[in-house]
Write a structure and sequence with these properties.
Elements lengths: L20 E7 L6 E6 L4 E15 L2 E6 L3 E4 L5 E4 L6 E8 L11 H11 L8 E2 L4 H19 L4 H18 L13 H16 L7 H8 L3 H12 L3 H19 L4 H7 L5 H12 L3 H6 L3 E2 L2 E2 L3
Antiparallel strand pairs: 1-7, 2-6, 3-4, 3-5, 3-6, 3-7, 5-8, 9-10
């Protein structure tokens, strides 16, 4: 698992209040099936695939992903990336708050072209091949934004905002207004799973049972497990372990606490189980991680 995934977690600020924009370059770990754990955030995200193949899931809708594809992920949508072990997969992600495009007042542009997307009256295409001329144009704009952000020359923020407006125009003029596919997960179902994930994050230090989750959310164990798997492409146990391991990394890196104590602090019942799960995600033991085995030429090497 790549530590850069922490940059994509919803608790991370993408840019800052003065310029809520960020680009992340991600080379995923091809040894695992899970490339990006299921998460959501308030910002809009464009995933531009730069190599390999995988599956991108957005609110339970799965799409094949290959080099050149672009995925448009709306705010607050659960999304994840899963691939076949042994097959590389890389992308760059453009994240920005929709407020970056807002008008100062609720003018025609704000009402017709910004608020209509925010409220769901207009729905952008989630996957661009690209195959059509406008999709190629959108791909070119994203490549420009990437270069502008990398150079960060004077007034680069103006150029990025201008290119985002051009991109928004292309997406808007090729959007649909019919709403979501009724066969996909409903807003209600996605909302339940978002609440379940929030519960898991709040209780990861202690024992979490399916019985407790079933009682908490008033859903049968079987239905909850099926719904969670459908939307996140992970089982509840897989997600909980994924989150616990991500929390344990900070303890290992930033403190000198005993590994057995860290196992307990992150919800593992014993050190042997913690070691086994840690190795399955990180391809090394907690001791190896702490000793800096993952450092090559001063940078993390988790592949």
């Amino acid at each position: 698992m790549n530590e850069e995934y922490h940059l994509l977690r919803e608790r991370r600020s993408h840019g800052n209040a003065m310029f809520p924009f960020m680009i992340y370059e991600i080379e995923t770990d091809e040894k695992t099936g899970e490339r990006v754990g299921c998460h959501w955030h308030e910002e809009i995200e464009f995933l531009v695939i730069t190599g390999g193949t995988a599956e991108v899931t957005i609110d339970g809708r799965g799409y094949p992903a290959q080099e050149g594809n672009i995925f448009v992920i709306p705010p607050d949508c659960l999304h994840s990336v899963n691939g076949k072990p042994g097959i590389p997969f890389s992308f760059f992600a453009v994240d920005f708050a929709q407020t970056l495009l807002n008008s100062f007042v609720s003018d025609r542009i704000q009402q017709n072209y910004i608020d209509s997307v925010r409220t769901g009256a207009v729905v952008f295409s989630e996957r661009l091949a690209p195959a059509q001329d406008w999709e190629y144009e959108a791909s070119g704009i994203l490549a420009q934004i990437r270069r502008i952000f990398a150079k960060q020359e004077p007034a680069y923020e103006l150029l990025i905002k201008a290119r985002l407006c051009e991109l928004w125009y292309l997406l808007f003029t090729h959007a649909r207004t019919t709403g979501r596919d009724p066969a996909s997960a409903t807003d209600y179902q996605v909302g339940i799973i978002r609440a379940v994930i929030g519960y898991l994050k709040s209780h990861y230090e202690s024992a979490v049972s399916l019985e407790a989750l079933s009682k908490e959310f008033g859903i049968s164990r079987g239905h909850l497990c099926r719904l969670f798997k459908q939307i996140t492409k992970m089982t509840i146990v897989e997600y909980l372990n994924y989150y616990r391991i991500s929390m344990s990394i900070s303890w290992l890196r930033d403190t000198d606490r005993e590994i057995g104590e860290i196992a307990g602090l992150t919800g593992f019942c014993n050190i042997s189980y913690f070691n086994r799960v840690f190795r399955s995600y990180m391809h090394m033991t907690p001791t190896e991680y702490r000793r800096g085995t993952f450092i090559v030429d001063g940078v993390p090497n988790l592949y």
